[in-house]
Amino acid sequence: MDELRKTKKFKEVSKEDEEEEHSLEMQFPYLKQIFPTGVKIVPIIVGNLKGNLEVEYANILRPYFKSEENFFVISSDFCHWGDRFSYTYYNKADGKIYESISKLDHEGMDVIAKQDPKSNNQSIQGIH
Asked: What pLDDT sits at residue 111?
């Protein structure tokens, strides 16, 4: 973590913000099952990276991906939907709101399965 801090490209998350984030708590039971004696965890929360920031952070993390000593767990909610997250996409043509959100999630999964981020369509471009 010290090496990442030295880049000055990462910031500490407040306890309150961390308590609002639920992705780690969803992973811990699985990690405990796989690594019963424990493991060092370096949590990195990524929001919406635009432009050259994607490349910049990829370059910072590249050495860690190359090392066989590291194990990455990457998780996504696809989108945090609601006023709280300033994201309320809804296409009435897709049906009720839960159907619109479901379609959006499935489109996101399709993009991931294709492993081609440029293949996304209009509705998922707003996902953060």
From this structure: 81
First vs last C-alpha separation in the chain: 25
Q: Which amino acid is at 85?
A: F
Domain segments of the chain as ranges: 1-75, 78-128
Tokens of 5: 């801090």
What pLDDT, in 10s, does the model give residues 59-114? 999 999 999 889 888 776 666 777 877 788 889 999 999 999 889 888 888 887 88
Closest CA to 124 of 110, 109, 104, 106: 104
Which residue type, as a one-letter code, is found at position 46?
V
* Three-class secondary structure of residue 65 per DSSP: helix
- 127 and 78 in contact (C-beta within 8 Å)? yes
